[in-house]
Amino acid sequence: MNLRLPASERREQILDVAIQVFARNGFHGSSMNDIADAAGVTKPVLYQHFDSKQDLYLALLDEVGMRMLTAIRSGQAGATGGRALTELGFRAYFSWVAEDHDAFLLLFGSRASRDEESTVAIRRITNDVAHAIEPLISADIDAEHRRTLAHGLVGLAEGVSRYLVERGERFDPAVLGQQVADMAWAGLRAVH
Question: In CA terms, which of 52, 117, 141, 149 is 20 to 30 Å from 172?
Fold first, then answer.
């Protein structure tokens, strides 16, 4: 039996279910019927919250990007010094990936939508994460060099995650976070 939820809770429920549907079936392999069925709502209820499948997908990208950034920032809370920030940031990121494969696949998986709007949204999310990392790089370098390194760190984390998630491999986020942080920290220490 489907209980009547307040609009904001219903929207969250739809978003959570849609993440799973899109991550598993891809954008083109998912329909609004699939999402409505999985959410236990009618299609008209779905359209009360989202104008189209594309509108829902873009809302999901924003939601997942915000969740990822929040996880990283929360994981770094209380850290002092560059090395601790690096380690805790990678651990928090890999914990997010381990806990929510579907969200990761929605953003970065091979079945993610690659239309122009989605590409722009994913690029914006990547830029937001790099922008958050950039001030944490405490090397005596110019702003453009710092920005480039921040994007390199984002790519490093994404590449490792994609390799493991798409192969279906389980991993310990703390161990993996430490390993990747060690490599990143060694590289950052050499930057001048």
Answer: 149
Task: Record the tokens describing residue 79, joined without a space.
Answer: 């850290």
Q: Pick from 22, 115, 7, 15: which is nearest to 66 by CA? A: 15
Amino acid at 13: Q
Residues 79, 38 contacting (CB under 8 angstroms): no
Q: How many helices (H) and strands (E) does the chain have?
A: 9, 0
pTM of the entire structure? Answer: 0.84
Amino acid in position 65 = G
> pLDDT below 70 — which residues of the chain?
1-3, 110-113, 192
For tokens 């236990």, the residue is 40
Q: What angle do CA 113, 36, 55 make, to 5 degrees?
A: 40
